[in-house]
Specification:
Elements: H1 17-25, H2 31-35, E1 41-44, E2 59-74, E3 81-89, E4 92-99, H3 104-107, E5 113-122, E6 129-132, E7 135-138, E8 150-153, H4 162-175, H5 182-186, H6 193-201, H7 208-215, H8 220-245, H9 256-265, H10 272-285, E9 292-297, H11 303-316, E10 320-324, H12 328-342, E11 349-352, H13 358-369, E12 375-378, E13 392-397, H14 405-412, E14 419-424, H15 430-436, E15 441-445, E16 455-460, H16 465-477, E17 481-485, H17 500-511, E18 516-519, H18 525-536, E19 542-545, E20 558-564, H19 571-578, E21 588-593, H20 600-611, H21 615-626, H22 628-632, H23 651-666, H24 670-675
Parallel strand pairs: 4-6, 9-14, 9-15, 10-12, 10-13, 11-12, 13-14, 16-21, 17-19, 17-20, 18-19, 20-21
Antiparallel strand pairs: 1-8, 2-3, 2-5, 3-4, 5-6, 5-7
Helix pairs in contact: 6-8, 8-23, 10-11, 11-12
């Protein structure tokens, strides 16, 4: 009897209704789901240790020998059932005990040879060593499964143990019919899919170098499975790109009128990187297909100005522009900045947020519904059904990782086929950008505008706190402002950190008459916005905060950023926080106030961060050390989590997958390729374009 990857798990013999239910509850409903549940590590149990050489307790070993004695008994408490055996080889003997596994007394017997793998401990009597509750397997003619080889170790799934999963996997691999897989022929340099799947579960090797590759998920078999996942994602993105290319978008011409408006808008010179990004965007806006472009740049690289020029071109063509930001204060700041930029032009900049008054809101909605060519800046309020933009020509989304896929899609769907520009101040490694934004073109701003002050970053211990407070007072007296950031807002024994409010009060006392404020995520939105607005206006000189200030505060006078326990943050997040200072003409500092028990690894990460202001270098290091899930929140983007593929480890396979899919698209073979892919369940659903 054989099964396909699409067969339900209930069809597998010997699984049972109860275990099948457990697997379904854990997201494993098909044979394919089961086989994509890979070992999380491997143990080489192929080389048994001679029994006579065991002299050290508290080690885990593999042994093989003959059972010369076997008995069962109950402990004095009657609550514990013991099965005891004596196993012997040519070098010595070893007592073995299993707890509460009475079936072993009937399964095992004297005279059989068994493989055992488990911990060796000092017997409770104090006399000699014994092996405690080892995994076992009777030596037989058929190929070993649990011992005598390199053994896959699976994470337990509720009541289904790792040993049970190992048995189930072996039985399933023996009976599954995988069929023709397209990439086998297209990428012959890697093992066929079926062979890769079998070897990842049960590697037929004891070679040390290969075992090292297996442990790191870099074996040829892992790479082949990763390619299948990455090709599935590349195919989804390619279909999204091609679907968008079939749409008719507003064509925005560039003539002397538009150039005059741009010159009036910008009384300053763009950086070379800004000019390049503008040229790429302008070229897209002149095409009849919708632009879909990611504009990524370091903190303060001038993304808003680039977006403003794109908006100008769309407005000049008679279309509307929506600019969505994740917070109200950021929307207000963008609204003020864009209003200044657009003042010399005939176009209006409107701001629509949750706090917009009823009468003003009604006027804005009326102008938008009438199709008037205006630029509207807003928060999630732009997504409300009452907001009608029949002539939406360009959707701009700032700090896009703060929005879910459905939210971006709802904004785009306000128009017929508007152009899309998404922006991020979190520099993204190339491999991650290819995965997250494979259906978007990418423009990069790596150059800071003239006048931006580099931020000097230093590590300090708590012993330096008195000097640091004196420096804070000095900065405030000279006209500067200070951010002081904490990683928590309440007592946590686990992290051994003081509560933000109590600590902030202590620091405020030390600062005397310096005006201070406190913000954190548990405050109401209006209260938090009011404190941040007071800080932005210069009424408060020191702002004690959690990472709610990571994005959305532009305070040119801010010259000092203090971050307590920086080891609790990712490097990309630290870089975002550091970007809050150095926005004016004053010199700027970032002080990393580290704890007393800083690990050597954490110190090296922070020293790396302090030594560079290059956000792209910081992003690469953060991505390498933390992985993509934490780095950007893949779930938020609507992209799947991979079973095998790692965007850091398998960059070569990512590039190969994209090349294969693009070639298939050019040859008109995309549907053929799709039918021939083994799609993991998490990759089977398409992601909405944009």
């Amino acid at each position: 009897m054989s099964f396909t990857l699409a067969s339900p798990v209930e069809a597998l013999p010997g699984l049972g209704r109860t275990r099948a239910k457990v697997l379904r509850e854990r997201g494993i409903s098909t044979v394919g789901d089961l086989l994509w549940y890979l070992p999380h590590r491997y143990e080489d149990r192929s080389n048994p240790t001679p029994l006579g050489s065991l002299t050290t307790p508290d080690v885990t070993v593999t042994v093989v020998g003959e059972i010369t004695d076997l008995r069962e008994r109950r402990a004095r408490t009657r609550a514990l059932h013991l099965v005891e055996a004596l196993v012997q080889d040519s070098t010595g003997a070893l007592p073995v005990v299993w707890f509460n596994q009475p079936y072993l007394a009937k399964t095992l017997r004297r005279g059989v040879r068994v493989w055992l793998h488990g911990p060796v401990r000092l017997a409770k009597s104090g006399w000699g060593l014994q092996m405690v509750s080892p995994e076992w397997e009777v030596e037989e003619d058929e190929e070993p499964l649990h011992l005598g080889r390199v053994v896959p170790v699976y994470r337990r799934l509720d009541t289904v143990s790792g040993r049970q999963l190992r048995t189930l996997m072996a039985r399933t691999l023996d009976q599954v019919a995988i069929g023709s897989v397209a990439l086998d022929a297209l990428v012959p340099e890697l093992p066929p899919f079926a062979a890769a799947l079998a070897q990842v579960h049960f590697p037929e090797t004891t070679d040390t170098a290969t075992l090292e590759l297996l442990a790191r998920r870099l074996s040829p078999w892992h790479r082949r499975l990763a390619l299948e996942e990455l090709a599935a994602l590349a195919l989804v993105l390619e279909k999204s790109r091609r679907r968008r290319a079939a749409l008719q978008a507003p064509v925005c011409a560039v003539g002397e009128k538009e150039r005059e408006l741009a010159r009036a808008m910008l009384p300053f010179q763009l950086t070379r990187a800004q000019r390049q990004a503008v040229a790429e965007i302008v070229a897209d806006l002149q095409k009849p297909t919708p632009m879909a472009r990611l504009l990524q740049g370091d903190v303060g690289a001038g993304k808003t100005v680039v977006a403003a020029l794109a908006a100008l071109l769309v407005l000049a063509a008679g279309w509307q522009v929506a600019f969505m930001a994740p917070t109200e204060i950021l929307a207000q700041q963008h609204g003020a900045t864009l209003s200044r930029l657009f003042a010399p032009t005939p176009f209006s900049v409107l701001t629509l947020t949750g706090s917009t008054g009823a009468s003003e809101r009604a006027q804005i909605l009326a102008r938008l519904a009438a199709g008037e060519p205006v630029l509207v800046v807003g928060t999630h309020a732009l997504l409300e059904e009452a907001v009608q933009m029949p002539r939406l020509g360009l959707a701009i989304i700032d700090e896009q990782h703060r929005f879910g896929t459905s939210q971006r899609q709802r904004l785009v769907e306000k128009g017929q086929a508007p152009h899309l520009l998404v922006m991020t101040a979190t520099p993204i490694p190339r491999s991650l950008a290819l995965s997250l934004y494979g259906d978007l073109e990418v423009s990069v701003l790596k150059e800071l505008p003239p006048g931006r002050q580099p931020v000097r970053t230093v590590l300090r211990t708590r012993q330096a706190l008195p000097k640091l407070l004196a420096f804070v007072r000095q900065e405030v007296a000279a006209g500067g402002q200070v951010f002081w950031v904490f990683p928590v807002i309440e007592e946590s024994e686990l992290l051994d950190l003081k509560a933000l409010t109590a600590h902030a009060q202590e620091l405020a006392k030390e600062l005397g008459d310096v005006p201070v404020g406190t913000v954190h995520g548990r405050m109401g939105a209006h209260e938090r916005e009011a404190v941040m607005a007071a800080f932005a206006a210069g009424k408060l000189k020191v702002l004690f905060a959690t990472t709610v200030i990571e994005v959305g505060v532009d305070v040119p006078a801010a010259s000092l950023m203090v971050i307590e326990n920086p080891e609790r943050f990712g490097l990309a997040q630290l870089h975002q926080l550091r970007g809050r200072v150095g926005r004016g003409s004053r010199r700027a500092f970032c002080v990393l106030l580290v704890g007393d028990n800083l690990s050597e690894e954490a110190r090296k990460r922070l020293e790396f961060f302090a030594a560079t202001t290059d956000g792209f270098a910081v992003a690469e290091e953060d991505f390498r050390s933390r992985g993509p899930g934490e780095f950007t929140g893949l779930r938020q983007w609507g992209r799947p989590e991979f079973r095998v593929a790692s965007l850091f480890l398998h960059q070569r396979e990512l590039e190969l997958a994209r090349a294969v899919v693009r070639q298939a698209a050019e040859n008109g073979q995309l549907e053929v390729l799709e039918r021939g892919l083994v799609l993991p369940p998490t990759l089977g659903e398409e992601v909405p374009p944009g």
